[in-house]
Specification:
Strand order of the largest sheet: 1-2-6-5
Shape: elongated
Number of helices: 6
Structural class: alpha+beta
Radius of gyration: 18 Å
Oligomer: single chain
Strand content: 15-25%
Largest sheet: 4 strands, mixed
Helix content: 40-55%
Length: 174
């Protein structure tokens, strides 16, 4: 390849793991021998697996009421809900997640939570058949391991759960 730099932002979370491996191979093929791939990824946070949908929504509502913009609070809530529903392969069945979210909102009489929850539902307006991938760190390393090595890992520190959205500088391996 002839490119010195390829940049990707959260691209691996929207495809099955096998497609991710193919994409990594294509990117490696585009890069020159000294090229780098800068990628922001989303790692699965296992903490949220044991937290109920209602608790996650209430925490998101508290974030939105604080000094975090509502859009970021909704986004973080969606990622936390996906972490809750990720299976051992990192797949998230949106239809099951949405069903639990509807049930939680219907059982609640808090109008502010209902408004916040509708924002979360609007964020997840993709077709019900989409199965998002939330990789564990080990799965991510397995995905890139044959083609890239990690030169640097950078994490923001200005929003909750930022450590689960690292930016990697990946060096092409020989």
């Amino acid at each position: 390849g002839s490119f010195k730099l390829v940049v990707g932002d959260l691209i691996l979370r929207q495809m099955p793991l096998g497609d991710g491996k193919n994409l990594i191979s294509v990117i490696a093929g585009l890069l020159s021998s000294d090229g780098v791939f800068v990628l922001r990824s989303s790692a699965r946070n296992p903490y949220w697996e044991g937290v109920s949908c209602g608790e996650i929504l209430n925490l998101g509502l508290k974030l939105a009421a604080g000094n975090i913009k509502k859009r970021l609070a909704v986004t973080l809530t969606v990622f936390r809900l996906r972490d809750r529903w990720a299976d051992e392969f990192g797949r998230v069945r949106i239809d099951r997640l949405r069903a639990e979210l509807f049930d939680t909102l219907n059982a609640n009489d808090n109008p502010m939570l209902a408004e916040f929850g509708s924002g979360v539902l609007n964020y997840m307006a993709e077709p019900l058949s989409i199965s998002w991938t939330h990789l564990s760190e080990l799965q991510f390393f397995d995905l890139i391991g044959d083609q890239f090595s990690i030169e640097e890992k950078i994490c923001a520190d200005d929003y909750p759960d930022a450590e689960f959205f690292p930016v990697y500088v990946l060096k092409k391996t020989d």
